[in-house]
Known about the structure:
The protein is elongated, with a radius of gyration of 25 Å. It is an alpha+beta fold. The relative contact order is 0.17. Strand 4 and strand 5 (61-64) form a beta hairpin. It is 22% helix and 33% strand. It has one domain (15-151): Immunoglobulin-like (Sandwich), CATH 2.60.40.
Amino acid sequence: xxxxxxxxxxxxxxxxxxxxxxxxxxxxxxxxxxxxxxxxxxxxxxxxxxxxxxxxxxxxxxxxxxxxxxxxxxxxxxxxxxxxxxxxxxxxxxxxxxxxxxxxxxxxxxxxxxxxxxxxxxxxxxxxxxxxxxxxxxxxxxxxxxxxxxxxxxxxxxxxxxxxxxxxxxxxxxxxxxxxxxxxxxxxxxxxxx
Length: 194
Ligand SMILES: [Ca+2]
């Protein structure tokens, strides 16, 4: 019995897990939204994924995905853009030359839950986004959360990191500033005393 469990565990561990992540969402493009919303998807798993076998899930419906530009297979770390109207997307991003795919969707401007599902319609990445970005600004995945992105977004380019914290002045810089401030105060007081 124990050996059987061990054997199953070993087999499961040996099967690479296919995974895709939503990495950027433009739910509220500047101006009219119809057909101009898009999402960015990255294959974060160790094996290639044929996106045409996967689904975009919204509002209780699994929508099929069709490759429009570039191969339907995403290798590890490859990124594609999923648009409801690829021609409208290209109108907004004429210099885009990456992978592009199509699925039916209409993203809420007030937030909703959306997901990616594999060929067995098992949800592999679900995002409950909230309207944290103003109109025209995308939201991007940073680690395991979403943050406001940039105006127009960065379709096809992923790798945003945690915004760098403001640099803390080194003691020598801070010390020099305090000495300068103290001497200004001292000089002004002396000037008043005269
Ligand atoms: Ca991006």
